[in-house]
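Data availability excerpt. The first of two example chains:
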Amino acid sequence: MSVTGNALEVLRGRGFLEQISDEPALAQRLGAGPVVFYAGFDPTAASLHVGHYVPLLAMAHLARLGHRPIAVLGGGTAMVGDPSGKTEMRQLITREVIDANRIGIEGQVRRIIGPSAQVVNNGDWILPLNYIAFLRDIGRHFSVNRMLSAEAYRMRLEKGLSFIEFNYQLLQAYDFLALNERFDCALQIGGDDQWGNILAGIDLIRRVRQREAFGLTFPLLTTASGTKMGKTAAGAVWLDAALTSPYDFFQYFVNVDDRDVIRLLKMMTFEPLEEIQKLERAEGADLREAKRWLAHAVTAIVHGPQVADQMQAAARAAFGGGQFVGGAADAQGSAVALPTVNIDGARLLAGLKIVDLIAESGLASSKSAARRLIEQGGVRVGERRISSIDDVLAPEEIADSGTLLHAGKKHLRRLVRG
């Protein structure tokens, strides 16, 4: 595949660039022909989340320009845990759980980056390492003083930094060296919290192989209000449909802050920049349409175009533009696309508290959060406003087609008899 376009300018125009190790040299290298590059993802959970989506999209953009992506799934580094951006040590997980997570995540990575993605497991070269040989061959190139000056380690010194975490930078640097030796990989990309680790890998390649390598980071994704992108009251927004339903995923992007819409269209979609820029001064109905465009585009990338169409139809039916029967959408089968809660008949007859239903359905992160929603007047079953934390769901409230449970103006579930 030939290289097309100026890769750095494409990434800069879409808001991806934060730091570059040697921009003139990297620009020249990227313009001369296909460059093998990588980003790493530690399988510490069963799915990637919206925070991982930015490096995946950056990889996809570079791949579309003709460069060669490698996604490293950290079957080895996940055994240690990255201290970057963490105030406490990660809970160590077993190798069996890590392997199961890695297999599940691989499909997400391939779907988003595209067919050119090469996926490797760093456990293949990290787990067989001889510790003493590794210290002699790799550890001798690292200065403890310089490592302690890195922000990832410095912020942890007061609360405590375990020795196993202290080794993480060596292992990530070794990843870059191993990929350079095996695949001629010359560029590592990642979030800006990885800058110190990336520089360590560049330095290690220079010391061991006397070769030039490069690093590039993206800004850490936060909302205009300063919160971490991809976090909701109910928890993280996952890329796995079993953990975050496609409807909730779609609605997350429909409901982003007005100030974030254009930035997210640039960073999280493949939509042409010239079309996005036309909306930079959008207000009112035009801005709402831009949010729907964003939600549809991102959902199509993560879950497929057909699912995105279904979620868009379901959202229009639930919040206007669709017909309702018994409080549930009945527009072209859109109700089926809504997150559905099956309620056991015996439990319903026994008196199911609304506060329990809200927490169990994922509309709130806990029962205490569910209570606050009710006390603030933000919960509705069909057309009935829930006024007390002791209110129960009446059996007759669930229509044959289902009934909508609203938590606030933007979040809902379809209740059906199990």
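And the second chain:
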Amino acid sequence: MNSPGGTKDTDVFVRKRRVGDVVPVTFEVAERKMRPRALSSPLVLILLAFITLIAIGAVLLSAPFSHHNPGFSSPVIALFTATSAVTVTGLVVVETSAHWTTLGHGVILLLMFVGGLGFMSLAAFLLAVLGQRVSIAQRLLIRETLSTDRIGGLQRLSVSIVLTAVAIQIIGFFALFGRLLAEYEPGMAAWQSLFHAVSGFNNAGFVIFPEPTGMAAHQSDIFLLAIMGGLIVLGTLSFWVVSDIATKRRFSLYSLVSKIVLLMTGILITVAAAFVFVSEGSNPQTLGQLPIGNKIAVSVFEGISGRTAGFSTFDYAYARPATDVFISFMMFIGGATASVAGGIKVTTFFIVVLSIYSIVKEKSHVTAFGREIDRPTITRSYAVLIVCLAFSFFCTLALAFTNSHILVRDLAFESVSAFGTVGLSTGATAKLNTIGQLIVTLTMLAGRIGPLLIGLKMVPNQDSASYRHATETVTIG
């Protein structure tokens, strides 16, 4: 695409002071010149975008038309639910299907859609529809939120992401509608299919099935679990991986990120499914009463959903402690970078494990699939891991301090679930006092944007120091 001046849109222009001629300067040069703004502006704008969307959602959910109770809803409940929807977490303090009206469900659906897809992607898409161009600052912001190094063609990329996400959710809608039409009347089946297609792909975990037990009522419906599981997996892979799968015929042609994401996703799902099957297979309150085929299907679904989405076919309040601990670990890892999933991301976990292996083997470099991983990426991976661990710990500590009537094990599970934007619960969320609910609200927001902000803050500064301190060895271990 060319600018009105006839040059590519990957160039910007500055005017010479003495001659007055216009010369092209690449985006990299321009970005270095505006680096102080590039580091601070995205942080502020991303945070403000999420806060604004949450505030709008909270106001709409507190209105009388959104819930069945008379008058306005509790502002804390509305704020908690809006935050859970925008951050696509799925934790709730009230029953979603029973407390909120159809209009309330519609508000939650819109919040899930916008929050999962990304505010900047939608903004760029709308600007493209209106025929407007995005500014340099907007492109830099979109680039950071999409976790890409490219600067040109971001508006077209955003359009592709939105159209791909919508297409997948439409396919999910028709698949669910074909299945649910056998259980509900057409209008109800269509609404249930639309809501759960959006909730499934965005890994939001919200359920509005009319049955009191929600998703557990469909525990034996293998076809439904397969559709929801497929939507969840596609949502956790990110646009980049889905694009590689769709456009490249061989695994060897995929990017390094796609290879890592696909490998880790397969391993984590398999390991999690096997663990749930072994741990809960004999538990009569979860999987113990099911036939062997259904046990396998539910275990696979929990292996998929328990890591990122939060849909559950059994009550984790009755799960064994080993299951809670292991699923907490899975929730902490999460899905792929630039996907709808939370957690520290599978690439971060992969790099940390691989670097530890290299250290143990006394290797000087960290390599994967014939490629060397650069040192700054390894450093950022450790930083994300440590900061996220610390935040989860302090969230658990804060909840334990303000809600001493709840077991620490349950509070830790809720904290990791909130920070990983998963939404699984042992029932502790509904028992939290107002302060506890506000702590979890903050944790969900931090879990959604925290890893991204950490990555932005750790972008290497081009202006290196003119001196370095003397080196000295510190004993460890």
